[in-house]
Amino acid sequence: MKKLTKSGHKLDSIDSALIVALHQNARTSIRALGRQVGLSAPGCSERLKRLEVAGIIVGFSVELGAEALGYVLQALVRVKPLTGKFQEVEQLLTNMSECVVCYKITGEDSFVCHLYTESVGHLDLTLQKITPLADTNTSIIKTVDKKLPNF
């Protein structure tokens, strides 16, 4: 059965194949994508345009090599602001260069942040900026395994 998106666009096997191929390499040319999924270059281009208009593809991005940039340590930090400090914590996390992704969540904690740091010492200094305003719980990331959704 085809999955129906919010926009009413049904994902068929070609849509799914395009999404998987782009997820693996967003720089793949239209011609190469078309060959992979059995479409001409113009047909592939039109299909991608429809996926963008439907809001299924919302952008193309570059993935940086954090270690090559000197960030050898990654951590997930759960953050629970102290009473009356929510907005101050939110602003701090927004402006923190080490915080590459921050989710505002429900539950006991208010945020989960993905930090990139140069060392354990750098992580410590980063957490010291947060702890006057919030309780934190930190987990160091050992490996990252990227998964694709099943279509």
TrEMBL record:
Domain HTH asnC-type: 11-72
Source organism superkingdom: Bacteria
Protein keywords: DNA-binding, Transcription, Transcription regulation
PANTHER family: ASNC-FAMILY TRANSCRIPTIONAL REGULATORY PROTEIN, LEUCINE-RESPONSIVE REGULATORY PROTEIN
Protein name (record): Lrp/AsnC family transcriptional regulator
Organism: Pseudomonas azadiae
Taxonomic lineage from the root: Bacteria, Pseudomonadati, Pseudomonadota, Gammaproteobacteria, Pseudomonadales
